[in-house]
Write a structure and sequence with these properties.
It contains ten helices and nine strands. With about 325 residues, the protein is an alpha/beta fold.
């Protein structure tokens, strides 16, 4: 299947704004793994996310968006999900996995990104508060994936009764896109993926052994620590060698992708993970779209401005096109 590639065409003013943002980011410390312990910067990021979650709940309420936290059953004690519902009937439901390098973040991290999809596009969002990786607590990749799987099973079984629609989408950003891809594959293998009508995967990680752009990342890399990025990914699965990190159970790029629904991939040109999105979109067996964002570093969609706003608008248009295709069918 040929991937459809679209590049945002930035105006001169948009380019200047993005360049100023990137110049400020260049002065900030880079994020890197430290044995999966929380550094001071990561702790502050986590605290900021928790405060932001409370603030956006008030803002969402003013827009008629319902906010609910629900603990759904799972095989090892249950998992919390944060549910946003639109003012009117839901036209579809997005199962959302937040980013944060697998070690920080929460289900409310993407509230401000999902606000328009819920309040204006009429979509419900179910965000997963999956367990974050932690050496002291013994939380590993399979625990985070198990939580996402539990949420996926619950939504597949309860969407129609709870939300009045069987039109489901799977979404994730960064580490969340990695978990979303693995969740989709596992749900497919269980025969539960029939109601999912599309995947929205934003600057994800699909090869834990490191794609070429990851291995080539240098000290000029923004947000992430380029020179250690490949070895940082290796810390996720310390018991595996490089060949083991290319196993489909942790690196979806090497999985059999048959039976997956259409997908939209989003990648920034300055993101060292850009090859992950490119290679994954090229390997996708059904309709695949790749939105390339000039001057976009990793995580840019959280920084506001034209790059974020136009990318979010592109995501919404892609979902609307999928819903229109379903209506036509």
């Amino acid at each position: 299947m040929t991937v459809r590639v679209r590049r945002l065409d930035l105006t001169p003013a948009e380019r200047r704004t993005a360049e100023r943002t990137n110049a400020a980011l260049a002065l900030m410390p880079r994020l890197k793994a430290d044995g999966w312990r929380l550094t001071a910067g990561q702790w502050l990021s986590n605290r900021f996310g928790q405060v932001a979650e409370r603030v956006t709940a008030v803002q969402l309420s003013r827009r008629g968006v319902g906010v609910e936290t629900l603990r759904i059953p799972s095989e090892d004690g249950g998992v919390s999900v944060r549910i946003l519902t639109p003012p009117g009937p839901a036209r579809g439901v997005i199962l959302d996995m937040h980013g944060g390098g697998w070690v920080v973040g929460s289900a409310g991290l993407n509230d401000h990104l999902n606000a328009d999809l819920v309040a204006e596009a009429g979509l419900a969002v179910v965000s997963v508060d999956y367990r974050l990786l932690s050496e002291p607590r013994g939380v590993q990749m399979q625990h985070a994936l198990a939580d996402c799987m539990a949420a996926g099973r619950w939504l597949a079984e309860n969407a129609t009764d709870r939300f009045g629609t069987d039109r489901l989408f799977l979404a994730g950003q960064s580490a969340g896109a990695h978990l979303a891809a693995l969740t989709g594959l596992a749900l497919r293998d269980e025969g539960r993926f029939g109601d999912f009508r599309g995947c929205i995967l934003v600057y994800g990680v699909y090869d834990l052994s490191g794609t070429p752009s990851v291995r080539a990342a240098g000290p000029e890399t923004l947000i992430l620590n380029g020179p250690t990025l490949a070895s940082d990914l290796g810390r996720l699965t310390p018991e595996r060698d490089e060949a083991g990190r290319q196993s489909p159970d942790v690196s979806p790029l090497y999985a059999d992708l048959h039976g997956m629904p259409p997908a939209l991939f989003v990648a920034g040109d300055l993101d060292p993970l850009r090859d992950d999105s490119r290679l994954m979109s090229e390997a996708w067996p059904t309709d695949a779209d790749l939105l390339q964002v000039p001057l976009g570093p990793h995580g840019f969609i959280h920084f506001g401005g034209s790059l974020a706003n136009r990318s979010l608008a592109g995501i919404r248009l892609w979902i609307e096109a999928r819903l229109a295709a379903l209506d036509a069918a």
